[in-house]
Structure formats: structure tokens, C-alpha cells
Write a structure and sequence with these properties.
Two copies of one chain form a homodimer.
Chain A: E1 7-14, E2 17-24, E3 27-31, E4 33-35, H1 48-53, E5 58-62, H2 63-68, H3 72-77, H4 81-85, E6 90-94, H5 97-102, E7 108-109, E8 114-117, E9 124-127, H6 129-139, E10 143-145, H7 157-175, E11 184-189, H8 195-207, E12 213-215, H9 224-235, E13 244-246, H10 252-260, E14 265-267, H11 270-276, E15 279-280, E16 287-288, H12 308-312, H13 315-323, H14 328-354, H15 357-367
Parallel strand pairs in A: 4-14, 5-6, 6-10, 10-11, 11-12, 12-13, 13-14
Antiparallel strand pairs in A: 1-2, 2-3, 7-8, 8-9, 15-16
Helix pairs in contact in A: 6-7, 7-8, 8-9, 10-14, 10-15, 11-14, 13-14, 14-15
């Protein structure tokens, strides 16, 4: 295994759930951790300093997006992603596997890699495991991901199996690319909703000895039951001493279920995207701030919240900004929603320590009964 | 004259140019002053705290806009504009006269007031001098403006004269509305490009003894020569001991010319609107940040600038945000442009004190030879 500066320590375990820390050259954070999404080297509409104030210590960007625009050489010449976007915490880049799948029928995947047309200008692009890792080395995130073949849901088991086997093959090739020790390359488990495929994927990746492992290809439309089952069973085949990252997840309940299943890292667009649609998360449930009833509501989004938005601005003002089409609404709601997700992670970590997971799960289930969007 | 808490002190004068301070119940600021525009109770895309950091101490909002949305009762119930938008400095609201003119042929103006259709939902609205002042009392800005009849350019002298006479009539009626002493009501001089009409307007308004006077109806397309001549001559007919406000101005050169003519206050959308179009002001000239040449430019927007944007972000990053359609570009460029305008005002005040106005005028004229947009 390549040497890496990334240090994962598990400090406490109850059942499958565990508490730990991850240290990168850009700082340390507690796990289970939620990582805000900043696809294009910006957490949309929020200054990096204000993202930090939400308690977020690692954010996620995307190699596919940055490769196409502004180009990885631009990020490299800036001194890497941290300096390019003026972010003082840690970073992770996804490899682009998920984005390539999202392009649908215009993608041609062979063992070599994936050919597709850029979503920006239609130009032809070829992505391979080696190209993706090299791009991510140029970008310079603390944690980088192997290029994987995601499959949509539903898909035949044979197609899922082939993509899983290819993902492992690609992981081997990704590992052969030199990576500075300041960066840690994680493998990605695939296999759709079949536990045996997931097991095979997890075990063969583990043999490659990555400094961390992700569970990919979930939250793509599969039933919740299958989703939870896959997470639980897959975690069992991953090394105890390495961080586990559940990609693209998720809904508040999913963060609880994932954490209780032994997952250490999460990312999701939910807090940021919902904010831009005028929706706020609170521990009393979601709020659609466009709703007329907030026009004369001079309370904060959430009484118990300590974020910049709740400390200085009312629901009535936020509704005014939304209705008037002012982008400051997105900024303020994003700040609050990110803080909500960080507070939720704090509560999850606390509940694991205190053995009150069930109470937390029930209180969240009561106000967030099903997946939003 | 109604008593007011507003205090204007002139501390230094050279020729017509003067340096002073204005104190409101929300703080003190130096004059000549530039006021950023926050039409809808927000300086677009920037948190109020970050607006303060640009050195801006008074911002401008709009009674017409807030009357229509969210409604002045909403702002009043919030505790007034300052609390509604969480702005810790001073505020000024324009009356809506300029906005009503901008609606064009759908407006019917009589001595009573102006009838028009809302630009938001087409509903019929009637605005009078009394309604406008009452709306502004509800909004609660430190400085409020009489409802005036603006005329477009060009216009016949007879039409300009009638609008000017009506504006004075309306100013008398505005003065009859009770205003708390924490708010100061300013009169507005009209008269298009005719110096005799402007003189008549200034003298008759002065007799009404307002705590401050504005020159309105300029920067609407008239030749620069006329514009400067009107400003210079009108100032001569306004009281020495009251602040003078040149509305909707302006271009860097206009701020210099206006200040040298004895104007104390300015507002303009130029720094904020240009920012949203990807254009940055610097003392070496304007920059179109979308330009390809900035893709690999890792310097700040302006080496000598001390704003949040220049301290943390490069031209290459700003260009990336712009090209990628990220709203953070507007936020960062607005912060810089507002800081540029405040630094320009600092230089103007300094040049008046040191007698170096000519040198400043020439250096600005060299890089901003004509009006932008």
C-alpha cells in the first residue's frame, strides 16, 4: 500500500456504529462526518469562510467537472484546490464515475475507460482510471477516489456484475498511478442491490489495501429497504481500521442509519440544493420558506440554531428575499441548512456515545418521514 | 422646520468642494459619501456584514419597491428596515419618483399623485406625496425623500417646468406629514437641463427648510456637459449648512466632478450591477473578468486593494466562477467593486484636503474616459 498522510482513528464503538477522527494535512475532523458539496470548486452561493462557520471541515468537489472546466491544469497552477477556492479545511474529490453514468446513453464504456460528450460544449472526452487519478492529483484534494463504473437502478444482475468487476480492475490500475502522500486514494465498492456482488467487490478491493473505502452506486432510486441492507452487509466486508464513505447520502434518516451501520463519511447535495429551492431543514421538520404564512413571521428559521442566518435574519425577511428573487436567500438558507446537517452529525455522534440512537432515530423519523425530492 | 436627529457638519472647504460628516441615529459617516444600492432591502448577493467591511456606512433602499413587496407594514412590523435586513449602518430610502417615471406610458400623473400599474403583478397603484412619506416612515430609514416628478430626457421646457412646480407643491405636502425626529426628510430639486428651472426649484425648496436637499432627474441620458453645468449651478442655490445629494450618480468621474461641485452624497447601481455582469473596477481601469486572458491569472483583481475578494481570491478563480455560472462570482465582485467605490471616495476626500483634485481627476479620466453602461 502507498504511504499516506491520512490518519483514521476509531475512538469508540457501539455495535457497528463508531466514532473516530480523520486527519489530513489540512486538519482533523470527527467522524461520522458530513461533507458539503462544492462540485465546481465552490459551495454554491456561500463564501468559504462562512462554510467553515457552519462547522464543516471537509468539502467535496468533482474531478469530472473541474477536468472539463476550468481544467485541472488551471487548478494545479493555482496551487491546488484549497488555494484555488480559498478553502482552509480538507477536501475530497469524486472521480467522475457517477457523473459519467448520469450522462446516460451518450456514454460508451469499455475496459479501457469511458468515452462521452462534455455536458458543457459537446466535445468528445475520454476518461480512464489513470486519467481520473492524474486529474485528481493535479487538483490536489486530500482524499481522492478511484474511477468507478456506476450502474443505474434497476439493472440486470449480469450488467451489475460486469460493472463491479470492471470497477475492481480499474481500481488496480488507479493504484498504479503515483499519488503524493498528502493525498489518499479510496476504492469504491459497486454491485448495485446484490449483496453477493457487493461482498465480492468489497473483498477484492480490500485486498488492494486502500487507505479508505467508499460504497458507491446507491441512492440512485433503489428501494430504501435494499439500500439499508446493502449498506449494512457491505460494511461487514470492509476493513475495520479504514474509513468508510457512503457516497451521495443523504437524507437525515440515511445519515443516522448509515452511521449506525458503521459508515464514517457522507456527502449530499440535499442541504445546498434544497436551500436554493427555498427549503430549510430544522429539527422540527422541513420548512418551505416561500409559504405565505412566513410573510409575517419574525422568528428565526430555528430557535435552537446558532448559525449566522438564525442569529441575524427572520423567516419574514428570508421569504421576502425568495419571493423577490434575491440570491442572498440562497446564501442564507444554505448557511442554515449546512449548519443543520453539522448539528445533526453532532447529535448522531453524541447519541452513539450515549446509547440514545433509537431516540434520535425516532425523533428524526417523526419529522422527516421519507426521502425529500 | 421639523426637528431631526440628523447632524451635518462641514469641516473643511476648498472652492466649492467640502468635507464633512453626517450623523444619524445609526452612526456617523464622512462626506462626500457613496451609498451602495440595496433596492429590495438587500445589497444584491452580499451579506450585510460583508457590505460593512467594504467601508460602506449608509446604504440606499427604495420605498416604491418595498411598498409593493413585501409591503411597508411588513418592514414596519419587523422593527424597521435596519432590523428587517440586519444592517447595522445608516439607511436612506428613495421615494419612488424615479421608479414611477421609469414605468413610462402606463403612468398617469396629476397634481394629486401618480397612478400606475405594479411592475410585479400589474395591479393598480396610487402614489402621492403623503403616501410616499408615510410608507417611508413605516420603513424607517434615517434619511427619506420627498416624492418627486421626474421627467425623462429629452423633454420640452414646458413639461419640465410643470413637473418641477408640481415637485415643489408635492414637497410642501410631504412636509405636512409627521415624521419621527430619527428620520430626516430631504427635498428634491427638479428642472431637467434648464438652469433657470433648477434655480427656481432649489430656491423654493430651500424656503421650505428641509434638513437636506437632493438633485434629482439627472443621469437620465442628458449630455455630460449639461449634467455638470446643472450640478454646479444648482448647488449654488442650495443652503450651505445642509447636505446635498446627487441622486443616481455615478460613474467614477462623476463622483469627482460632483464632489468638486459641492455635492456631499451619491448613490449608484454601477458597482453592484457591473459586478453581476462580471466587471470589476480598479484604479488601473475596468476589467471584464470573463475575458479568456484571466483564465491563468493568479493575481488578485487589484494588487493595492484590501477587500475580502482581493485578499483571498484570484482573477483565475473569479473567471472560473463566472464562466461556470456560479453566483459566488457576483458576491465576490460586488464586494470588490463596493470597496473600490469607497476607496475612490477616500481618495476624493483626501484630494480635497490636499488640493490634489486635478491630479486625481486626470488619473481617473485616463482609465475611465467615458461613462460605462
Amino acid at each position: 500500500m502507498a504511504q499516506t498522510d491520512l490518519v483514521f482513528s476509531c475512538n469508540y464503538q457501539r455495535g457497528k456504529a463508531r466514532l473516530g477522527t480523520i486527519r489530513t494535512v489540512h486538519g482533523e475532523f470527527e467522524t461520522p462526518v458530513f461533507m458539503p458539496v462544492g462540485t465546481q470548486a465552490t459551495v454554491k452561493s456561500v463564501l468559504p469562510e462562512d462554510v467553515l462557520k457552519t462547522g464543516s471541515k471537509i468539502i467535496l468537489s468533482n474531478a469530472y467537472h473541474l477536468y472539463l472546466r476550468p481544467g485541472t491544469e488551471t487548478v494545479k497552477a493555482a496551487g491546488g484546490l484549497h488555494r484555488f477556492m480559498n478553502w482552509k479545511g480538507s477536501t475530497l474529490t469524486d472521480s467522475g464515475g457517477f457523473q459519467v453514468m448520469s450522462l446516460g446513453s451518450t456514454v460508451k464504456v469499455t475496459d479501457e475507460g469511458a468515452s462521452f460528450r462534455s455536458h458543457i460544449d459537446g466535445s468528445e472526452v475520454f476518461f480512464s482510471p489513470e486519467i481520473s487519478v492524474r486529474a485528481q492529483v493535479d487538483i490536489g484534494a486530500d482524499i481522492i477516489m478511484c474511477f468507478d463504473q456506476c450502474v443505474p437502478y434497476p439493472v440486470s444482475k449480469e450488467v451489475a456484475r460486469k460493472a463491479m468487476v470492471r470497477t475492481t480492475l480499474w481500481a488496480e490500475r488507479a493504484k498504479s498511478v503515483p499519488v503524493p502522500r498528502s493525498q489518499a486514494l479510496f476504492g469504491i465498492v459497486q454491485g448495485s442491490v446484490w449483496t453477493d456482488l457487493r461482498k465480492e467487490s468489497a473483498l477484492s478491493l480490500s485486498r488492494l489495501d486502500f487507505p479508505g473505502y467508499a460504497i458507491g452506486g446507491l441512492a440512485v432510486g433503489e428501494p430504501k429497504k435494499d439500500f439499508y441492507e446493502i449498506v449494512r452487509s457491505t460494511v461487514g466486508y470492509l476493513p475495520e481500521d479504514k474509513p468508510r464513505y457512503l457516497m451521495g447520502v443523504g437524507h437525515p434518516l440515511d445519515l443516522i442509519e448509515g452511521s449506525l451501520s458503521g459508515v464514517d463519511m457522507f456527502d449530499c447535495v440535499l442541504p445546498t440544493r434544497n436551500a436554493r429551492h427555498g427549503r430549510a431543514f430544522t429539527f422540527e421538520g422541513g420548512l418551505n420558506i416561500r409559504n405565505r404564512k412566513f410573510a409575517g413571521d419574525y422568528g428565526p428559521l430555528e430557535e435552537s440554531c446558532d448559525c449566522v442566518t438564525c442569529k441575524g435574519f427572520t423567516r419574514a425577511y428570508l421569504r421576502h428575499l425568495l419571493v423577490a428573487g434575491e440570491t442572498l436567500a440562497s446564501t442564507l438558507l444554505t448557511i442554515h441548512n449546512l449548519r443543520f446537517f453539522q448539528r445533526l452529525m453532532e447529535r448522531i455522534r453524541e447519541s452513539i456515545l450515549e446509547g440514545t440512537e433509537e431516540r434520535l432515530r425516532e425523533s428524526i423519523l417523526e419529522v422527516y418521514p421519507f426521502r425529500e425530492e
